[in-house]
Design goal:
8% of the residues lie in helices and 54% in strands. The chain has 664 residues and is mainly β. It has a 22-stranded antiparallel β-barrel. A five-stranded mixed beta sheet has the order 3-8-9-6-7. A two-stranded antiparallel sheet has the order 1-2. A hairpin with a 6-residue loop joins strand 20 and strand 21.
Length: 664
């Protein structure tokens, strides 16, 4: 690892540089983005005064890094790790807490929840490939956030904030091409017309995917995966700057080809089609100098059509000559209303809200060439969509919530946060989640933060209502999962141009929902604790070094054994070198420590890995407002595996993407 780090650090020195050429506007924008956060308490505040553990990925890093998607950006955050799943999407692990559908992480787009797959609870099935060209900044609040945001804000809250018209001020076309026959086109428009601010974006992605070779799948076959992907995303925002009325909406369509199957068997027929969209109409207005109101109504839709080749042709032989085939469909819908009132006084802010939401699973259907109850083979694919044999019924649940948080400045150096939220669901009842926080500016260079918070994850529709499958049955008596977290953060800036922090965390998880004897149950407790340390060193204007390290231990509290597939050690280092006013180089490396297996998995642990990336960008080089970027991923072609399944899935080999953008 260290040899690769040294190589990356000294690589920029081969390029003739002039690091002092920059503009005051660039510098002021960078400083502004670093000083505030809006997601931690749903009101704009100084990042040093929020007690939550917050990481901000600003527009400068997004522009310079050359990430493929926003998950690449999240991989730079201490305590966060991205890994593969078997269902055409990646998953987000935070401080050792993870789920196949990232259902324990709440992902927002400008405050609007993207967790629209209500069957499974996650957001990545619909929105994994949000276009980076639209994103201004990402705020990651680690730890419980249910005190203000409710369900799914369990291990982390991720708020993706889009660009303003002032950030765009015209039209920008971006073209990308790379390995695996990858093509991506993005058109971004942002302009103010009289009293209206209008932003529109269109993004198209088509790729053959990062095919990998499996030496042995779950049934002993070997071969290459074929993970093709096609994705369309559109976004529209219209704001009346005079009266505060606004509309925003997003449409996303994704189609993924064979990966390695729901039972980890190589195949050539899997196909997943997913469509999602949301609309939101709202009002943001200052009623007085001290009182502001945000009211909104919204509607979300998500559907998926899956063709599963559970096992390939001839397996189990000789019964399934055409393969073990299954087809499924469902859509989920939610609509709601929320009112948020904010009071701002000289020494305190009070944020209070009331919300209502209805959630539904609609139109479930399934077809297969085996009996869903017995597994007996059938001579052809048959329809099992009638209520007596379907995998789930149409279901609806509703909840209402009330919440409030006080941000009180005891004096100029000490702030106290006190808040709580009560959610009442008509299927499992009510749940209350408090949050307490304290920030103390010890002196001009040192800051201390204390936080205690609780959060919950509501049972998904699958966990509650799955049926007619002897190995995966729902349980209507489930309670929500709960977590209680303590955090201590120390921040220091006593050395010029160097900022550092260290966070100690301890979380206890109760009523974990897991499969027991083929049925979901609240079974087990877990504990995760660790340390996150990070630094940022500003070398010169526009050049900087960032680094972080995470130590995490996650144990089953009943057996005192470590949970499987969780790295104990993680580290990240990124180096941005502003060569001159035209060229910039960003190099980074992610270290992932070895991972133990689950108790029943006899395979040896997955060895540690270091994956490096490199991006060289040129700005206004050939023509004003024309930018060029070359990114190389897995620069040293590291060989490693994701370990979260019954097979080890190789990480992608070295690849590249070339990007050209032009503003007019």
């Amino acid at each position: 690892m260290y040899r690769k780090l040294i190589g990356l650090l000294f690589l920029p020195s081969i390029v003739l540089s002039n690091p002092f050429e920059t503009t005051l506007q660039d510098e002021m924008q960078w400083l502004e983005e670093e000083t505030f956060v809006v997601s931690a308490s749903r009101v704009k505040e100084n990042i040093k005064k929020t007690p939550a553990s917050v990481t901000v990925i600003d527009s400068d890093m997004i522009e310079k890094m050359g990430a493929k998607n926003f998950l690449d950006l999240l991989n730079t955050v201490p305590g966060v790790n991205i890994s593969q799943t078997y269902v055409y999407m990646d998953k987000i692990g935070v401080r050792g807490i993870q789920g196949d559908f990232s259902q324990k992480v709440l992902i927002l787009l400008d405050g609007h929840s993207l967790n629209s797959d209500l069957l499974n609870g996650g957001a990545l099935g619909a929105y994994e490939n949000l276009p980076l060209e639209l994103i201004k900044r990402i705020e990651i609040v680690k730890g419980p956030a249910s005190a203000l945001y409710g369900e799914n804000a369990f291990s982390a809250l991720i708020n993706i904030i889009t660009k303003d018209t002032e950030d765009i001020d015209g039209s920008i076309v971006t073209l990308k091409a790379g390995d695996n026959n990858t093509k991506r086109v993005n058109f971004l428009y942002g302009k103010r017309h009289k009293d209206y601010s209008i932003i529109a974006n269109f993004n198209f992605l088509d790729t053959d995917g990062e095919s990998v070779y499996l030496s042995r799948d779950s049934i002993g076959n070997s071969g290459y995966t074929d993970p093709t992907k096609e994705n369309i995303n559109t976004y529209l925002s219209i704001i009346n700057n005079k009266n505060g009325l606004y509309f925003k909406g997003n449409y996303n369509s994704a189609e993924d080809g064979p990966n390695f199957g729901v039972l980890n068997a190589l195949n050539n027929e899997d196909l997943s089609k997913r469509k999602s969209y949301f609309t939101e109409i709202g009002l943001k207005r200052d009623l007085t100098k001290e009182l502001s109101l945000h009211s909104r109504i919204y509607y979300d839709f998500y559907e998926t059509k899956n063709r599963w080749e559970v096992f390939p042709e001839g397996f189990p032989a000789p019964t399934f000559t055409d393969g073990m085939l299954g087809y499924s469909y469902y859509d989920s819908q939610k609509y709601g209303i929320e009112n948020l009132l904010t009071v701002k006084k000289e020494n305190y802010k009070l944020v209070s809200g009331l919300s209502y939401e209805s959630q539904s699973i609609k139109n479930p259907s399934q077809k297969m060439n085996w009996d869903p109850l017995t597994g007996a083979p059938l001579s052809s694919v048959q329809d099992f969509s009638d209520p007596g044999r379907n995998f789930i019924s149409e279901e609806t649940r509703k909840f209402w919530a009330i919440y409030s948080e006080l941000l009180y400045d005891i004096n100029t150096d000490i702030r106290m946060n006190l808040g709580a939220r009560y959610d009442h669901y008509d299927d499992f009842g009510g749940v209350t989640n408090p949050r307490l926080g304290l920030t103390w500016k010890l002196n001009k260079n040192n800051n201390i933060k204390l936080m205690y918070g609780e959060a919950f994850r509501a049972p998904t529709f699958a966990e509650l209502y799955n049926k007619n499958n002897p190995t995966i049955l729902g349980n209507t008596n489930l309670e929500p999962e709960k977590v209680k977290t303590y955090e201590l953060t120390l921040e220091n800036s006593s050395i010029d141009d160097l900022k550092s922090s260290i966070t100690i965390f301890n979380s206890n998880i109760e009523d974990i929902i897991t499969l027991k004897n083929g049925q979901y149950a609240n079974e087990g407790e877990a504990k995760t604790q660790g340390i996150e340390a990070q630094i940022k060193y500003d070398l010169t204007r526009g050049s900087y070094l960032i680094s972080n390290y995470t130590y995490q231990k996650t144990k089953n509290k009943q057996t005192d054994q470590e949970l499987g597939n969780v790295p104990t050690h993680m580290a990240y280092m990124g180096f941005n070198h502003r060569i001159n006013k035209y060229f910039n180089l960003y190099a980074d490396i992610k270290y992932l420590g070895s991972q133990t297996r689950t108790n029943t998995d006899t395979r040896k642990k997955v060895d540690n890995s270091t994956v490096a990336n490199l991006t060289l960008s040129a700005k206004n080089l050939l023509k004003k407002d024309m930018n060029i970027k070359l990114s190389i991923f897995n620069l040293f072609n590291e060989k490693s595996y994701d370990s979260g399944s019954v097979i080890d899935y190789p990480i992608a080999e070295r690849s590249y993407i070339v990007e050209l953008s032009y503003k007019f």
